[in-house]
């Protein structure tokens, strides 16, 4: 069985899943144990045993389809549940009994995590430095009207040193701006998580990713948080930066517990 998330036992959540399809377009149902339930559904065993998963995790198309289905189920639950504890992508159990065993073994830990996430959502903020800004007071690089061959070796070395210095100062300024953005948003969030910068060749986004952060925000504070991001995004181009906001999401980055089975 493919497991998507843990929630408190609720008929409303179970009902919301009746029209939702999960991985491999399969049905989703609630597997209950005491006050908790796992949102889960059957999947082909050959695709989700140890060998099948190892092969699929190298298949970007499969990963994208699975991630979309995973998010679809969690999003449906988050729309009606006060808190959702997302499980890792491709968390698989042998059967319902394995799911219930996990719920029994980690009952208190899972309840505590749900309490901590109650009424909170995750927002993602990425900041990219586009290389078009300069530190305050920095002069633009002088234009070179004479051919490079005409410059002396000493002039060339001086120019290259100045370019390297300007690049270092520019990168330092970009990092300072990103830290300032993160400090501002941290004050509006319950918790934060810093993720590794994204590789532009993989993300398809232009510029250097100088901030890739997740913020856990109370639902009632969502408008204040998004307004703050909008103001920061409006100012960012002056520093050669771009600010992107995603969410609200279920709190993937703040689950804080591994509810996967010991062995699939």
TrEMBL record:
Query: Per the record, what is one GO cellular component?
Result: gas vesicle
* Annotated stretches, region: Disordered: 130-154, 241-264
Q: Which domain of life is it from?
A: Bacteria
Q: What is its main location?
A: other
Q: Which GO terms describe its biological process?
A: gas vesicle organization
The record's subcellular locations are: Gas vesicle
Q: Fetch the PANTHER family from UniProt.
A: PROTEIN GVPL 2 (PTHR36852)
The family note in this entry says: Belongs to the gas vesicle GvpF/GvpL family.
Q: What is this protein called?
A: GvpL/GvpF family gas vesicle protein
Q: Which organism is it from?
A: Streptomyces triculaminicus
């Amino acid at each position: 069985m493919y497991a998507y998330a843990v929630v408190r036992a609720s008929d409303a959540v179970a009902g919301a899943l009746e029209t939702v399809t999960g991985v491999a377009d399969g049905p989703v149902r609630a597997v209950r144990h005491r006050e908790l339930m796992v949102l889960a559904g059957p999947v082909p065993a050959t695709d989700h045993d140890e060998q099948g998963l190892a092969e699929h995790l190298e298949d970007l198309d499969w990963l994208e389809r699975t991630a979309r289905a995973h998010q679809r189920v969690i999003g449906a639950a988050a729309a009606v549940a006060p808190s959702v504890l997302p499980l890792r992508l491709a968390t698989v159990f042998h059967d319902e009994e394995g799911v219930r065993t996990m719920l029994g073994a980690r009952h208190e830990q899972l309840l505590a995590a749900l309490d901590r996430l109650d009424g909170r959502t995750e927002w993602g903020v990425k900041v990219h430095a586009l290389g078009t800004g300069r530190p305050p007071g920095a002069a633009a690089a002088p234009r070179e009207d004479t051919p490079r061959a005409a410059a002396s070796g000493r002039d060339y070395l001086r120019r290259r040193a100045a370019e390297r210095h300007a690049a270092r100062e520019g990168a330092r300024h970009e990092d300072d701006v990103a830290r300032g953005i993160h400090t501002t948003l941290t004050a509006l969030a319950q918790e934060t998580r810093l993720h590794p910068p994204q590789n532009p060749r993989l993300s398809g986004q232009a510029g250097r990713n100088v901030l890739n952060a997740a913020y856990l925000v109370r639902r009632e504070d969502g408008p204040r948080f998004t307004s703050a991001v909008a103001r920061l995004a409006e100012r960012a181009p002056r520093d050669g930066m771009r600010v992107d906001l995603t969410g609200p999401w279920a709190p993937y980055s703040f689950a804080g517990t591994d509810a996967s089975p010991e062995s699939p």
